[in-house]
Amino acid sequence: MSSYSTFAQYYDELTQNVDYAERAEYFCGLLQSLRHPAGLVLDLACGTGSLTLQLKKRGLDVYGADASYEMLTVAQQKAAEAQQEILFLCQPMQKLDLYGTVDTVICALDSINHLTSERDVLAAFRRVSLFLNPGGYFLFDMNTLYKHREVLANHIFLYDTDHVYCVWQNHYEGKTDRVGIHLDFFGKEGALYRRSSEHFYERAYSIEKIGELLHTAGLTLAACYNDCSMEPPRPDSERVVVVARKEPISESEKEH
Description:
- The chain is built from 8 helices and 11 strands.
- The chain has helices at 7-14, 20-33, 50-57, 69-81, 118-131, 145-152, 207-216, 251-255, and strands at residues 40-44, 61-66, 88-90, 102-107, 132-143, 156-160, 164-173, 178-189, 192-203, 220-226, 239-245.
- The N and C termini lie far apart (40 Å).
- 37% of the residues are buried.
């Protein structure tokens, strides 16, 4: 995966449409519906820490991990400004190596889609399973095949904010359901603009394939919902939320 060194500078400004407070409320509500005490929570692929902070403000004992040092630098600054002490680890999902186990893992805003091979998705799921306590939950969302094929596709998007003008160009690969994303940033520097670029891929997976990979990793696909709802996915759902569980240890297993 890319380190998103350039994207990190503009990420928050270009994602102002994301309501992190609403998403944090949703995940907290989802945990309540599962009757699962959040316990120690990992915000996996936490990016610039916006969701981590919202979860922390709701009383969760949470820390974050992300593969991008630049993203985490922004996250640390935001936590300090909010006077919140939050641990952030610079680790890719596929090589997650925690100090101990956790009770809940949350991975939001399509981070799973940034893993563009089934091997990497399985590696990430295995690391989550390794560090998730029995009975714990892994909640994540992801872009759907529909979104990759119909919404992202080969389209171009333009963003014009106070500090940056961004040209977002997509290239859809039908055989793999990958989208190549090329971002050109024109950041304001006085009366001039400085151009920088970022390129990465995202891949969409079917719910069936995700279920298979979760099972192989020792996790159970417990539920799947349309984004930020308790409703089942629709054919035109652009994002879905997956609920996976690490099953508790049985009495017979405890005896051995």
